[in-house]
């Protein structure tokens, strides 16, 4: 029991111990980075931290890691500059993808039809690695009880499943 208490004490004690300086640094860096992220989102647009595509999701994960590094690190400059470069690259790629079909195919996943006219397409489910339970959940979320009630179900590029109800 003493060992567990000792390990827990280490887990909840920062390197160098607790100090007013440490708490002040963490609070200030968090607030500064929050402001910085808000400014970047306003400058680069609402897509900056949205997850429309799997690429956007990866950018968000990397951005979160950079923000955490900046909050917990010794300096805000390197992670802050990296975040600026990442957001600028994401902006450039999304702008190019909006203008070029070739760029869109390079960076965005194409939508995949999972249900067509009430029929589940098992090959599409398998290729896109979507479990039948996930498809059934999307149907229920759309107020449908089964695939026969759907005209289409589409796995969108961002990973969500859109359902178009059939004619009632």
UniProtKB/TrEMBL annotation:
> Does the record bear Cell membrane in its keywords?
yes
Record key words, sorted = Cell membrane, Membrane, Transmembrane, Transmembrane helix
Q: Where are the transmembrane segments?
A: 22-45, 57-74, 80-98
Protein localization: Cell membrane
Domain spans labelled YetF C-terminal: 99-165
Record's bilayer topology term: Multi-pass membrane protein
Regarding protein family, the annotation reads: Belongs to the UPF0702 family.
- Record protein name field: DUF421 domain-containing protein
Write down the species.
Deinococcus knuensis
Q: What is the lineage of its organism?
A: Bacteria, Thermotogati, Deinococcota, Deinococci, Deinococcales
């Amino acid at each position: 029991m003493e060992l567990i208490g000792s390990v827990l004490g280490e887990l909840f004690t920062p390197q160098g111990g607790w100090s007013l300086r440490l708490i002040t640094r963490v609070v200030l860096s968090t607030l500064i980075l929050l402001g910085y992220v808000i400014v970047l989102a306003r400058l680069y647009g609402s897509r900056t931290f949205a997850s429309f595509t799997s690429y956007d999701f990866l950018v968000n994960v990397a951005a979160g890691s950079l923000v955490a590094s900046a909050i917990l690190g010794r300096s805000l400059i390197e992670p802050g500059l990296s975040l600026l470069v990442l957001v600028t690259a994401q902006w450039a790629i999304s702008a190019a993808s909006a203008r070029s079909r070739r760029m869109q195919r390079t960076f965005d996943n194409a939508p995949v039809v999972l249900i067509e006219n009430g029929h589940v397409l098992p090959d599409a489910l398998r290729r896109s690695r979507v479990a039948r339970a996930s498809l059934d959940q999307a149907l229920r979320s759309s107020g449908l009880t089964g695939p026969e009630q759907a005209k289409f179900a589409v796995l969108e590029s961002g990973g969500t499943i859109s359902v178009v109800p059939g004619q009632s």
